[in-house]
Prior knowledge:
By secondary structure, this protein is of the alpha/beta class. 20% of the residues lie in helices and 19% in strands. It is built from 11 helices and 22 strands. It has helices spanning 139-148, 168-178, 197-206, 228-238, 279-285, 288-301, 321-329, 340-344, 366-377, 456-469, 478-492, and strands spanning 2-5, 10-14, 28-29, 34-35, 66-70, 73-77, 80-83, 90-94, 108-113, 116-119, 121-126, 151-156, 185-188, 190-191, 211-214, 244-248, 309-312, 334-339, 383-387, 510-520, 539-549, 552-556. It has a 6-stranded parallel β-sheet. The protein has a 5-stranded antiparallel β-sheet with strand order 8-7-1-2-9, with no helix packed on it. Strands 10-20-21-22 form a 4-stranded antiparallel β-sheet, with helices on one face. A hairpin with a 2-residue loop joins β21 and β22 (552-556). It is globular, with a radius of gyration of 24 Å. The relative contact order is 0.15. The chain binds zinc ion. Zinc ion binds at residues 125, 127, 157, 389, 391. Residues 117-248 form the Amidohydrolase-related domain. Its cofactor is Zn(2+). InterPro entries: Amidohydro-rel, Amidohydro_3, DHOase/Allantoinase_Hydrolase, Dihydroorotase_CS, DNase_TatD-rel_CS, Metal-dep_hydrolase_composite, Metal_Hydrolase. Keywords: Hydrolase, Metal-binding. Residues 476-555 form the Amidohydrolase domain.
Amino acid sequence: MTITSTPFRLALTRFGAGNNGLALLPLLVSGLHREVQPLPIAPLPLDPLAPGYPSTPTDPAHRKVVAVVYDDSLLLTPASISISPLSGKIVAVVATVLPKTSFPSSTTYIDYGSKLLIPGLVDAHVHLNEPGRTEWEGFNTGTRAAASGGVTTVVDMPLNAIPPTTTLAGFNEKLKASRGQCWVDVGFYGGVIPGNANELLPLVEAGVRGFKGFLIESGVEEFPAISSADIELAMKTLNGTPTTLMFHAEMIPPITDSVGDAVQSSEPPLAPKGTLKEYQTFLDSRPPSFETYAIEEIISLAHLATNLHLHIVHLSATQAIPILKEARKSGINITAETCFHYLGLAAEGVEDGDCRYKCCPPIREQLNQDGLWEELQAEDSCIKTIVSDHSPCTPELKLLPPHIQTMSTRPSMHLHHSDSGVDMRADLDLAPKLLPVLGEGDFFAAWGGISSVGLGLPILHSSSKKRALAGLKSAPSIVDIVRLCSQATAKQVGLSHRKGALRVGMDADICVFDDAEEWTLKSGGMHWKNRCSPWEGHHFTGRVKETWLRGQKVYEHGGANAGFVGRKPVGEAIIEKRIA
Ligand SMILES: [Zn+2]
C-alpha cells in the first residue's frame, strides 16, 4: 500500500495483489514474499544530499506536505509512502509524488490533496483507569479518543486503575482488561511505590516502557508517595536497565508560606489567600517551588543512577528549567515533558469555580506559558516531549457549579454508562435541571486531571499559529510538533524502532491532518468516556481527518460509526521488552 503527495496534494495509495474480492490486499505477491514496488519510477532516496534528490522547493505550496523522518532528522517534503496492509509496515518512501500509473493496477491509491501526512502521535502519558476505575475512562473509549486525534500509540500510567501497575500480577490484570478493546496500540508504565522494589525488574522483563513515582500524594490511596530512600532504592535497582524512571515532581519545601501538610492530599491550605473557589487560591497553594524543590531532590540522588534515564513528567513551572539544564550540562541524563494544557491554557483564563481546569501541578500564568514555549524552541531544550496527561474522572468529581455545567457534565447525565462505555445520552436533547453540587467549585475538593488525549495536534497547531500571528518567535512548525509528539515521545518509551517516524520498516502509523480546517470542540466531538474537559468550546485550526494504525485505517472523520472504521478495535498491547 502506498501513500503519496504532490506539492499541491497528498495521496495515499495501497497496493492490492489480485482479484480475490478483498478491498485491501497484502503486499506480498503469490507467496513469494516479494514486495510490490512502484514500477516505472525508481524510488528516490530520502536524502537531501544524495544525487537525484529534487532541489529544495521554494514555492510555499511545497511546504504543505509530508513530514518525513530521515536518519533521525525531520524533513517536510512531497512524498509517496507505500505501506503494506499485511505486515503493517512502511515499505517505501519516495520523495516525490508518483502518479497512480506508477503502481500495479490493483493498488489502492488515495489522493489526500493538500492535507499533511505525519507519523501517528505517540502520547506517552495517558491514564486509562481500567480495571478498577472504568467509570472514569477505559481502554475502549480512551483509545477511540486517541485514534480520533491521530494518536496511534498511547502509554498508560500505572495509577488510577485498580490494581495499580506496581506488581507483575497487577500488570497482567491490566493486560487482560485491555484485550480486544484498544483502537490504537497501548504501552504501559510500571509504578514505583514504597516496598515494591523487587517488582521493578520483573516488570522490565514483562515489557513496561518505564516507571513513575510520586514525590507528593497522588490522590489515590493505592499509589502512595515515595520517600528519598524509596527513590534511592529504585535508582539502584533500575540503574543500567533500558528504561526510564519518571517522577511526579512536586514536594512541599521546608518553609512554605500559608501551606499546611494537608495540601498534599489536595485539602485546603492552613491559611488560604482567598476563597477555595478562586483559581488564584489554588494556584497559590502549589507554587513553582513545589516543582523546583522536588526536582532538586531528584537531581541530588542522580549520582546513584549514572546509567539510567531520569524524566520529569508534566513540567509546569519554568523556574525548574535552569535547574534541569544545569543538571544536563553536568552530565545527568534527565529530561522533562510538558503538556498540551500548560501550552494552550493560562491561569488568567480560568473562571472561579471551573474545576475542569484543575490539575497538578497547576496551569500557571501566561508568562509561565510563554517561558515553556521558548524553552521548547531552545538549543538543547530540557523539555523533549509534549504529552496529554489525559486524566479523566466522572463529571461529579469535578464539582462544577450549575452555571458551568454543560449538558454532558451535569451529574444526572452520568449515573449510568451504556455497555459500550460511551454515554450516548449526551447527544440527546434531554437537558436536565441545573443541579446544585455539594462543595461546588471548590478547587481543593475537586479531582485534578484534564481530558485531552487526541486533541494535541489541533491544540499545538492552533496555539502555534496564534503565536506566529502575534509575531512571537516561539511558534513551533509542524515539523517541531512531529518531533515533540511523535519522534521524541517514541524514543522516550523505547519505541523508536517502530513508532514515531515515516520511514521504511516502521509501523505504518499515519495521521492525515488538514492544517487549515477550523472547528470548535463540542460535547459530541469528545470521544473519551466522560465528556468533561476545559477544552470544550475552544476554537481550533487544524483537524485530524484520518488515522491509520499499522497499515489499516482506524478512524475517518465524519465516517459511519462515529468515524471508527472497521467496527472492531485492532490496537495491540505493546509488551515487547524494551531494549533502548
Ligand atoms: Zn498523569
